[in-house]
Amino acid sequence: MHGVQRWEDAFLKLVFITCPEEAAHDITSVVLREHFAAGATVLSGAASTFWWKSGLENATEAVIILRTEEHMLKELLDQIRVLHPYEVPEILVLDAVSLNPAYTQWIKDELPQHQAAHPKNADTATQTAQTRTVKMETVTDLLKTASAHPLKIIVLGAPGAGARSVAYRIARRLMWPTFSPVEKLVSENGFSGNADKGDLLPDDRIQPVATSGLQKVKNGGVVVGFPRNQAQVKMLAAVWEHPDIVFILNLNRDEAIKRLRMRLSCACGRTYGPALPPSRAGICNACGARLFHRPDDVSEEAITKRYSVWNDVTRPLLLATYVAQVHPIEASMNYDAIIKEISQALTKKLIGSPSNTEK
Length: 359
What we know:
Layout (H helix, E strand, L loop, with lengths): L11 E9 H13 L5 E14 L2 E15 L3 H11 L6 E6 L5 H10 L11 H27 L3 E6 L5 H12 L3 E2 L1 H9 L13 H11 L7 E4 L5 H8 L7 E6 L2 H10 L1 E2 L5 E2 L22 H4 L1 H22 L4 E5 L4 H18 L1 H4 L2
Parallel strand pairs: 5-7, 5-8, 6-7, 8-11
Antiparallel strand pairs: 1-3, 1-4, 2-3, 9-10
């Protein structure tokens, strides 16, 4: 093709990925920050239907389109596999042709170039490549270690602090099991007793759910929204003698009331708000069901009671019981800042954990 600049000379690759919408930010932010790709486009709200383990599944997903060059492809794909929450990630790589020389040059300028492209700076290029390789291997090895040997993590917070969303996002990234006795009980039976008035669920109802469900995380994982009182501390102690880290998400009362009044919930357990809105108004991203306001999110009396229980019972108990393990988080920060702080704390713990350094 005369007179037209084709992309084969620059080895452009377009990488297409499908993933849960909440995972798209993690994937794109990391690959762009590490310069594995020159650009990313995220298309949200894609309705997917597929066969999985002999069953027909439906999901609302995001489609990510990444632009990279051939020499960056292996590092990019390795990173995606580490970050992707699916057991079998869907990743498609296509060769591309560009008819725009300026677009070609933009990609080349934004990506680290293969050392052969700059023979005069061979030593510098080699050193950069080695540094990137070491960094990539460190991240990959760390996450593989985390997946194989999960820490014992508790995530609890004030009403409206977003503890559940934070916990599940971290768990998905590290491929750790999760369990929430309260969430499981409510999802199966709905609100009953005085729960819709802001009271804790009765311990005699929590006990059987906790006893069986906590076995899922007995070797490590994330326990969400539990324990909330002394009886529940004893339930957890039967499985975990000592947790590794207890993340407490603090939020003042006025902000808690504001957030809860705007929060939407789904029967599957997902919650949404201004910081994490659903892709389609009123519809759950995960299961497609209609969202609703929980009874204890709309009543100021119930919210006030829940906050009082948190502030007067649960928070002081956690601080007294897990003195050495508590890591407080200011939940008024934006969502990404919270995730970053928790990730840094987990990374530090993983690197310094005797059980991991011995392996």
